[in-house]
Amino acid sequence: MPTVPTAAPTPTPHPDPTRRYAFFGPVGTFSEAALRTVVPVGTAPADPYPSVDATIAAVRAGRADVGVVPIENSVEGGVSATLDGLAAGDPLLVVGEVVIPVTFVLAARPGTTLADVGVVSTHSHGYAQVRRWLAQHLPGARYVPSLSTASAAAGLAQAAADGTGAGYDAAVCAPVAAERFGLQVLAEDIGDNRGAVTRFVLLARPAGDDGRVVLPAPTGADRTSLVAFLRTDHPGALVEVLEQFVTRGVNLSRIESRPTGDALGRYCFSIDCEGHVAEARVGEALMGLHRVCEQVRFLGSYPRADGRPALPGSGPDEDAFAAAEGWLRRVRAGRAG
Amino acid sequence: MPTVPTAAPTPTPHPDPTRRYAFFGPVGTFSEAALRTVVPVGTAPADPYPSVDATIAAVRAGRADVGVVPIENSVEGGVSATLDGLAAGDPLLVVGEVVIPVTFVLAARPGTTLADVGVVSTHSHGYAQVRRWLAQHLPGARYVPSLSTASAAAGLAQAAADGTGAGYDAAVCAPVAAERFGLQVLAEDIGDNRGAVTRFVLLARPAGDDGRVVLPAPTGADRTSLVAFLRTDHPGALVEVLEQFVTRGVNLSRIESRPTGDALGRYCFSIDCEGHVAEARVGEALMGLHRVCEQVRFLGSYPRADGRPALPGSGPDEDAFAAAEGWLRRVRAGRAG
Amino acid sequence: MPTVPTAAPTPTPHPDPTRRYAFFGPVGTFSEAALRTVVPVGTAPADPYPSVDATIAAVRAGRADVGVVPIENSVEGGVSATLDGLAAGDPLLVVGEVVIPVTFVLAARPGTTLADVGVVSTHSHGYAQVRRWLAQHLPGARYVPSLSTASAAAGLAQAAADGTGAGYDAAVCAPVAAERFGLQVLAEDIGDNRGAVTRFVLLARPAGDDGRVVLPAPTGADRTSLVAFLRTDHPGALVEVLEQFVTRGVNLSRIESRPTGDALGRYCFSIDCEGHVAEARVGEALMGLHRVCEQVRFLGSYPRADGRPALPGSGPDEDAFAAAEGWLRRVRAGRAG
Amino acid sequence: MPTVPTAAPTPTPHPDPTRRYAFFGPVGTFSEAALRTVVPVGTAPADPYPSVDATIAAVRAGRADVGVVPIENSVEGGVSATLDGLAAGDPLLVVGEVVIPVTFVLAARPGTTLADVGVVSTHSHGYAQVRRWLAQHLPGARYVPSLSTASAAAGLAQAAADGTGAGYDAAVCAPVAAERFGLQVLAEDIGDNRGAVTRFVLLARPAGDDGRVVLPAPTGADRTSLVAFLRTDHPGALVEVLEQFVTRGVNLSRIESRPTGDALGRYCFSIDCEGHVAEARVGEALMGLHRVCEQVRFLGSYPRADGRPALPGSGPDEDAFAAAEGWLRRVRAGRAG
C-alpha cells in the first residue's frame, strides 16, 4: 500500500471485496443503481439504509467503508439531506461520483390497469419529476409521499404479500424496482424531463493515523467539492469568495446556497470546482478561501464521471503556476526578475 | 383609487373582504397561520389548497386574488415548490411577506401516550426539523411522510372518526393543528432549532389593462425579489451579476441557486435585495441585470416583515443618485460638470 | 497640409472665421501643425502662446475661443501641464482631437555641418525621443533644454539675426519649424521611435447662459474624457471606479494617474473612455462614477480622430439599454416583467 | 545633516566606504541631499552624473555600486526618466528609499535685488512648483529651463567667474545649492505647495553568481516595487491585475501608468505595494501577477522611509497564510480539513 496518498490508485470504480458498502435503500433505489455501476452484485457486501442520513451515519460509525447517496438532480437540484449531512458532523470525503439517467415507470400489482389507479405514491423528488405526466394521464389521482421511490414499490409488494392494502394503487419508481418487487409496469419513461440525470457521490472517512489511502490521485479530469461558510453575508462577501476562484482561473461547476440553520438569510455555499486539490491552482484557490472564510470544509477531489478535463484556456495552466514559482524563488534571492 | 401604482396603499396587512385568499392547506398549516396574521378568520374568504403548486395555480387561474405559500425556512432553506413555481409559468407578483416562528408539537389521538408511539408522520420539512428530538425521545419510531404537517394531524382525526387506523400513531404539527383536529399534545416545542422561523409570501397576479393597483408603494423598508437566468454558467457570470448590485450599493438578503431543469450544473438564481424597484438604485441595478442576463423575472417589491430599513452606509443613497442625475443633465447640455 | 495617417480629417470644429484660436507656440510647433489640420492658415485668427499654461489661460480668459495643446505622446506619455491644467481651475471642455505623427529633424544655421554641433537644444519631451540617435551620431554633444521644439529653432534664427551666439549649435524640431525659421536640416527623421504620434485636444469654455452650443453631437465614433478624484486611495477604490465602466460595458482607451499635489500617494485619474455622454451606457457609467468618487470632472465628448467606433461586442449595446429601460417602466407599473 | 521630518534615518544601506555612489547631480541637487542622509560627506566616494539616465547607466555599467535618483514628487508626480529607466534595460533593484522635503529659494549673484530679476532659470519640475509664487512676485519674468535646479545655480556662479552673462538673472534651487555656489538668497521657501516632498530611490545591480546580498531583509515596514506589463489593455485587464492584490489583502501605495512607447494607449503600470516579497501574501500576489501579465519586472523590496508597517486589518495576516498552508497540507494528505 503506497504511503503517498495523491499517488494512490483511485478507489473508484474498482470494487473492493474487503470493503463494505452502504447505500440509500431499499434495494431498487437509484442509489443502488449507482452503486452497482461500481460494485456489481456479489462482488462486495452492500447494505441498504432507510435514508440519506442513515447511510451517512453508517459510514461515519464505521459500519460501512463507502456510502452511496444522491447529491444533485438535474431537475430538482441539490439533495438537501446530503448537502447538509456533509456540511456538518464528523468530516467525510467524497472519493468518487456516478451520474445515472433517471427513468421512471408507473408500477402496480399485476392485474392493475391505469384506470384503476386513484392514489399514487413515490418520493417527493420523484413526484416533482412526473407531475406533468400524472396531471395529463391521471388527472384525478391523489398523491401519497413515500420515503424513497423503491419503498413505494416495496410497499405495494409487501401489502400484496400481507393480503392488505398499501394505501395507494401504484408507485412511481425506477424500472429496476418494479422488476425486483414483481410489479407490473403500467407506463414507461414517464418523467417530465427526458434526459434527467442524478449525480451520486461515494463517501468515505478521511485518512487518520492508520495509513489508509483515501484521497483519489489526480487524473487530469477531476472535481473538487467543498463547503464555504462566509464570514459575513453582504454581497461583497460572496464576490470575495468567487474571486478566489476567478483570480486563479478555476471554473466552478456547481454553487448552491444552503441555510446554516441559525437564522433567515444565513447561508453557507456548497461548491464544486474543476480540478484536483493536488494541482497548484486549486490548492492556491482553496488556501485563499481558507483565509477569507469563517470556515472551509474540504469534501474531496475525485475523478469526474464524464471524464471531461478542465476547460482549456480558462486561466493560467499548471506550467504558468510553476513558472511563477520559479520566478518568485529567483526574486526572493535578490536576482533579476 | 389612484392610478399611480407606486403611490398605492400597501395591500398588506389590511384584509380586504372583496378579495378571496388561497393558502397551502389544509387548515392548521403554518401557511394558514401566516395568512391569519393578515386576514383574521371571518374577515375575507380563504380557501385551503392541497399543495404549494395548487395554491399558486389558484391565483394564476383567478380562483383566488391572493395566495399564501412558504418561501424560505431558516433551517431547511428555500421551499423548492415555491421558488420553482414563481420562476416559471405565468408571472405572479409578491405583494407582501409574513415571517412566523415555527413551533412543533407531537400530537396524537386522546388517550395515546408517548410509549404508544411507534410510527410518526409529518411533512418532510417538518421531519427534518425535529429529527434530533425524535432520535432522543422516540429512538425506535418509524417515519411516514405526509403532504403537510396539518394533513398528518387531519389524518389521525379522520381515522379516529372512521374507526380505522391512520398508518401512524402521532403527528408532528403546529399547535394550532392539534387544536383544530382535537388531538392531544404529547410533547410541546420539539423543534431542534429553537428560534426557527418560516417566511411566507403573498402572491397576486400582476397589473394588466384593468387599472388594478398591485405593486405596493415604497415604505422605506422594502424588499425586492427576482429570478436571474445567467447567460452562461462560468463563475465570472455570477460575479458579473453580483457586481450589478455591488456597483449600485444594493445589499442582497438572500441568494439561492435553483436548477433550470435542463442539465446538471445549469442554474438560475433566486435573489432578494434590499429596497424597492421605485428607488433609483434598485431600478438601475435591475436594468443592469436585465442587460447582462439571459432573462430576469421581477417578482415584486414589498414591505419587509421586520420593518428594517436598508442598512445605512451601504452605498450611495437616493440623494447621491439624484445629484448624479442632475450633474449628468448639466454635462449633457455642454455645461461645466 | 501635412499628411497625417492616423488622423482622418477631424470634422470638429469646422474652421470658423468668427472664432479666435490659441495654440502652444511659437509658430512651427507640433501644436500649430495640429491646429492647421483644422484651421488652415488664413481662415481664422490664431495666436501662439509661450506655454501650455498660457494657452489654456487664454481660453479661460476669453482671449481665444478654442485652444490647441498636446495631451498625450505615444513615447513620453501624458503631458502633465495639460492634464493638470484641465483637472483644476475653471472648467474647460475638449471639443475635438487631432493626432499627428511626430517627426524630428536636426536643424542648424546654414553652413553648419554635423561635425560642428557641440551643443543641442530642444524641449525635454523632444529630447527624450531622440536620445538614442544623438548618442549614436553626436556622442559628445551637450544638451540644453528649451521651452518648445520650435523655440529652439527660433533661438538659432534670432541669434543669427542678432549676430550673437544662441548658446547651442543645433535644434531638434519639426520639419516645418526648420523651414519657417530658415534653418538647414542636418539630419531628417531622427526620432528613436518611428511611428511616434502625439494627440492634441481642442479646448473651449463650457456652455453658459448664452445658448452657445459647445458639446459636439454624437457621431458613433466618439471619445469621452474626464478626471476622477477617488474618495480614498486603497486599491479597492480604483477597482470600484473601474467597475463602473466594466459593469456598463464601456471600454477605456486611456487611464493615467496624476498626483493631486496634496501628498505622496494621493492621485486623481485622468480617463478616456469610448462613446459619448449622450449615450445611455456612458451616461450611466458617469453617474456611477459621480456617486462613488469624491469628485468627477467631465472634460467632454468629441469625435475620435481615427473615426473608429466603439468595439462591437464589448458589452450591452444601446438597444439593450433601451430594452432595460422599457422593462423597468413596466415592472414599476406593477406589470409582468 | 538635514532635518528630514517624513524620513526617519533609513537604515539601508549603511554607508559603506567600499562602495561607490552615484547621484543625479551636480552637487547641490535634491538627489545629493537625499544621498547625504545615508552617506554623509566624506564617508564614501560619491560622483555626480548630469542626468537620471546617466546615473542609472553608471550603476548598470558598474562605475557605481549604488545610484540615487528621484522617483516621485508629491506635486509633479512620477519622474518619467526614472520610471522608464527602471522599466527597460538591464534589471536594477531598489534597495532603499529616502523622502525629503522640497524647499526652494530664489538665488542670484550677490548684489542682485528682486527688482533686477527679468529672467529665471530652473529645472522644469522645479518651475512647475513655484509658478504661482513667480506669477505673484515676478509677473514679468521670463523662464529659461535648465538641466537641474542645481545646474541653474551653478550656471550663475560659473558666469560670474567667467565674467560673462548666464542668460538669466536668478535660479530657483535648493537652499544648499545657493550655499554651495556662493549665491545670495533673494526669497526663501517659495514653493507653491508647502509640505511638498520628493521620494528618492537607491538602486543597485541584482545578485548574480557572486554571492553578494542585495535584497534588504524584511523589517515589518517594507515596500515592494514592480512594473506590470498587461497582456491586453481593456479595462478588465487592469481590474484583473488589481484583483491579484485585493484578493491577498495587499494594499497599493502608488500606481502610475506609463506608455510603453509602442502606440497611443499602450501602457505598463508602475506599482508600489505594502510589504516585502519574502512575506507570503506579497509573494503570492506577485506570482498571481506573473501569471496574468505579459511580463512583470520586480524592482525590489526595501524598508519604507516612514517606518510605517502595513495597515492592520487590511486583509489576512501572515498567520492566516500560514494556517491556510497547514490546512492545505492536511487535506492534500486526505485528512479531515
TrEMBL record, chains A, B, C, D:
<feature type="domain" description="ACT">
    <location>
        <begin position="226"/>
        <end position="303"/>
    </location>
</feature>
<dbReference type="InterPro" id="IPR001086">
    <property type="entry name" value="Preph_deHydtase"/>
</dbReference>
<comment type="pathway">
    <text>Amino-acid biosynthesis; L-phenylalanine biosynthesis; phenylpyruvate from prephenate: step 1/1.</text>
</comment>
<keyword id="KW-0028">Amino-acid biosynthesis</keyword>
<keyword id="KW-0057">Aromatic amino acid biosynthesis</keyword>
<protein>
    <recommendedName>
        <fullName>Prephenate dehydratase</fullName>
        <ecNumber>4.2.1.51</ecNumber>
    </recommendedName>
</protein>
<dbReference type="Pfam" id="PF00800">
    <property type="entry name" value="PDT"/>
</dbReference>
<dbReference type="InterPro" id="IPR045865">
    <property type="entry name" value="ACT-like_dom_sf"/>
</dbReference>
<dbReference type="InterPro" id="IPR008242">
    <property type="entry name" value="Chor_mutase/pphenate_deHydtase"/>
</dbReference>
<feature type="domain" description="Prephenate dehydratase">
    <location>
        <begin position="20"/>
        <end position="205"/>
    </location>
</feature>
<keyword id="KW-0456">Lyase</keyword>
<dbReference type="InterPro" id="IPR002912">
    <property type="entry name" value="ACT_dom"/>
</dbReference>
<dbReference type="InterPro" id="IPR018528">
    <property type="entry name" value="Preph_deHydtase_CS"/>
</dbReference>
<keyword id="KW-0584">Phenylalanine biosynthesis</keyword>
